[in-house]
Amino acid sequence: MAPVTDRDDFDKIVEGLDLDFTFPDEPADPEEPAAPPSAAAWSPEQARSGGDIEEPFYRKVDSTPIIPRRRGILLAWLGLLGAPLSLVVATISGVYLDPSVIGGAALIFVAAAIFLILQLPEHGPSRRDWPDDGAVL
Predict the structure, then answer these.
(1) 3-state DSSP call for residue 66?
(2) Nearest one of 116, 133, 47, 49 to 81, comparing CA atoms
(3) Mind giving me the DSSP string for 9-36?
(4) What is the pLDDT of residues 4-60, one digit of tens each?
């Protein structure tokens, strides 16, 4: 391989730069991290009095029941999950379905999905905790 003697554009750009490639022989000693305060040492009085430990921030959210109370939402979930499941069961069992039954199941699925999407709560400026980027469990 022949040595490259032509100066290209990169060499012209780099020659004016003052690049310091010296590295220290030994790495600096890392500082010992401060030990985190234990949860047992925290008290609400200490937080109110301006102590060095602050009260943890979280918002308590009421739990929602697993089975919805409103009949419309329950029927929508039944349609959303039941329509495709019934088509899968019919296909696996070898039952021939008319195209109108398949179309009806598809319409039930789409209508249930749209209904459930419309029932989602709006998280906009009208809510007390807007803008909230946290998860609701």
Answers:
(1) coil
(2) 116
(3) HHHHHHTT--------SSPPPPPPPPPP
(4) 567 778 777 777 777 777 766 666 666 666 655 555 555 666 555 555 555 666 667
Question: For the range 97-101, what are the long-range contacts, defined as Cβ-Cβ under 8 Å and sequence gap of 24 or more?
Answer: none
Structure tokens at 94: 């070898």
Contact call for residues 53 and 41 (beta carbons, < 8 A)? yes
If you search the block for the tokens 């039941």, which residue do you land on?
A: 82
For residue 80, pLDDT beyond 80: yes
DSSP at 97: -
What percent of the chain is modeled with pLDDT above 70? 55
- pLDDT of 100 higher than 60: yes
- Predicted TM-score (pTM) of the model is 0.46
Closest by CA position to 109, among listed 70, 73, 83, 137: 83
Could you tell me the two tokens for 76?
């929508």
Domain ranges of the chain: 71-118
Place of tokens 């310091």: 20
